Amino acid sequence: MSIRSYKIACIISILLIAVPVSLAEEENDREANWAYAKNINEQSITWVSHYNGTIRWGDRINIDDWALGNFTIELTDLMKDTTGSRIIGSLMTVTRGNKKSTVMINSDESEIVTFEAPFYDDEMKIYANISGERTWSRQLLEPNISIQVFLRDKPGINLSYKIYNEDPRSNASINASDYIKSNKMSYIQISLENKGNVSLMNALLDVNLTNYTIPQKQLLEQKQGMSFKQVENSIIYNLNELKANETRIINLSVIAPISPVNKTFPIPLRLSGRDNKDVEYIHRAEEQILVKPFIEINKQIGSYINYTSTEGDYENVLYLNEFSKVFLYIKNNGDQATVINLIDYVPDNFEYKTEDNKSLNWILSIPAGSSDIITYSVRPIRYKQNSILPEATATFEFDGKNYSVDSDDIEVKIKGADVSLTKDIKVNQQSNGIINATITIHANNQGDQRVSINIADRLPDNADLINGTTSRDNIFLEKDELYSYSYEISIPFEERIVLPAAKGYFIDFRGFIEKDSRKSDYRREIESNQPVIESRPSAPEPTPEDIGQETLENTTNITLSSQVDKEDKKTKLEIIKEFILKLLNIITGNQKEDILETARIQKTDIIAQTELITRRIEETHSSFTWTLGWESQDNENASGGAWKVSETPGSRVTVSFTGTGAVLYYAAGPQGGIASIELDGEPYADIDMYSSVPISQNNRTIASGLENTRHTLAITVSGARNPATSNSIVVIDAIEITQPS
């Protein structure tokens, strides 16, 4: 039997189940339909290589094509000549699903794979060649077969489009946009590219413009030399033939739909056509186009200071304490008038000023297609290198529902000097009605400019300066530099002494830095806080003259009261006995001496009750009971060389003591939080441990004038914080107890 006859017999012997008329398979939005396919001459076919390699007996290779599907090609046998001693060809089995076709190929020849309708016999061609020795022997078990698989070329279509807010034909440098505006003219640029070697004939492009409006006056411009028709919401272009390696661009103008919010509206594209075998191809493309709300808000800030950095780079910045204009542009792109409630905001380190001195809240009525502008002024009042001016918000009603849109926020850079003054007090001693205290002034340059500072503090009324000076002049501070100085005072006791604020001013060298001699140095007044001294006075001592003026009745009452107060030391019988004896002495003429003796006893009793001593208890003492969340930290500025720190909300420490008053020592700083205070189960005022500069051994009098009994002080990390702080840390250093001597 000849090779040709054997091949035909093998093909006939294989039972093939008829394939469907339409073998359309969608992959990457592409379809191929063989419903109208026909046989064509091989001379009109362009073959494209899909595989080139070497296989052995029993090997399989896979061919994957988006239009034909997946195929397996297996080397199932080798063909020998009539003598059976020489290999002259190979037998290939091509499988697609449960369909098979067998191909016999002489060495160094190619054969077209025969398929049943609708593929016919012109979709795949296989070339095979025997490598090496062809003589059949027991040693030649696995000869190599060089194989190359070709598929019929098809139109290679790439379909895509871009959107623009301006006509790209008028300006080639315009960039495509990722959104379009409500109810505004938008421009779609469609690209059709045939990368294959076969033309797409009878090509039709269907552009579905549901939700969009097609301007009638634009239709003639959109024709662009091609015939088209409008069918309901679609424009269908007749492209005739899209040739191999040809690219076409179609520009289309539409009006976007009206939307109250950001919403996507697709524009589906469908390109169909046939090749020279009458196989129909369909390509689809669809993107979700973002349509912006018909209410637009654009926020801008102007009047920037042109600042020259030390590197010579120019950048737009805002300067501390100088006003700049904010512009809010509001536009109504809808088809009816709309009432808008517009609200804007400024960050914590800014302040604003409006023309009518009202809040940043406006009610506007804007006609369809119209716009409005709102302006106000802002200035940074505290240094923060990069600040965000937040979005402005517009709320409005549309189709019976409420909507809101936001502008973009604005990032600005801030320049300038920002100096803070802090005044602290530490009571060193209190005796004989005189308080000795140390006053400390801290100046911290938190800005980014070098400054010169002058500070003038003054003493409170009736105070004397013991050591140091209250003022400083011409102190130079670099960025982030802290300067502190202290002095000591003595002052007569009062129940509450409020110290005056330290005052001063600083000058930054703005004119020098900006290299502009027309600008004067910037001067700004500054003022510190006013610390408070709170203490308990010692009782005044009675004099004999005062006592001599007392009546007998008062004297006896004082004496009796004094004695009864000492019931824990004497019995009532002893007290009555002493009282009767003293009364008899008075009657018999010894009144003055007994009065003086009574005064001496009274004085001793008063002194015993009113002279107080203080005792400091460190955080390591057994009187402290700590819950979880506290961490011990060594610090040379702490009262005992260490303190305990926690930022865990709910962490708690209790201190038990016997005395008449308690003062809490703690550390304050830029990360300080707020501590909740309780004494004997009753809530007391919270302690805010925030300070713009670190302060150690800060103190707060929790209570004074208590009964000299057992008390329990509780401090809890509340988790609350000052708006200026960056954390909620609570630092406990020690407690100072007041007790009678």
UniProtKB/TrEMBL annotation:
UniProt-annotated stretches for the region Disordered: 520-558
Organism for this UniProt entry: Candidatus Methanoperedens nitratireducens
UniProt-recorded name of the protein: DUF11 domain-containing protein
